Amino acid sequence: MDESLLRRSVAEFIGTFTLIFIGGGAGIISHSDIVAVALANGLAIGIMVSNLGHISGGHFNPAITLGFVATRRIAPALAAVYWAAQLLGAVAAAFILRYLFTKLAVAVFAAPAPHIADGKAVLLEAIMTFFLVWAVWATAVDVRGAFKAIAGLAIGLTITMDVFVGGPVTGAAMNPARAFGPELAGNTWTGWWIYWVGPIAGGLVACLVYEYLYLKPLAPSVVGTPESGVDEPRPGETASS
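^ that's the sequence the OP posted. Answer follows.
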């Protein structure tokens, strides 16, 4: 494996592992205290994006990576490696949580509440993921954004905001990997498709709208490396052009 590819995939594994381990662990320890769960998820992502964003872009979410593919900011082959790393990170974290706690405790983070209809759960996941991916595009993808300064903070706080609303209803996954790991570890697949359809739909709408409404007309002279967010000149240009 190419050294750069290895570094990026390990970063995606660690970031996704952290999200599931810290977010899920906080839910188990705090007995689903919404404030604790929201802060744990937001802090986990905010810190990991700040730590690893310059290496892999800090996706940690198959829906976000798909958005990068849809906007041609990442090659499909690299995206496939990211998806594998993200799912493996989620599974590893979920099984360790199962070992530390119980199968039942892990399973509760991968199913919608009994009172919510599937269609409403999909819509809620889609809307929450829209906010998340919008924050990613506005702070980490847009070259005018604040990737080097507050992208991690903005993305983490968006997740915290979403969990306050959706946590008690769907678990506020906003992330297929975030659901898949606990589903596999807990062998609980109720409404599993909700966590693929909702986040993917919401994420694609967000990235495509932002891309074509705010980025395409600008045609900036420099673009960030898709997966790293670092400004680099286009071929044939100098850094000062």
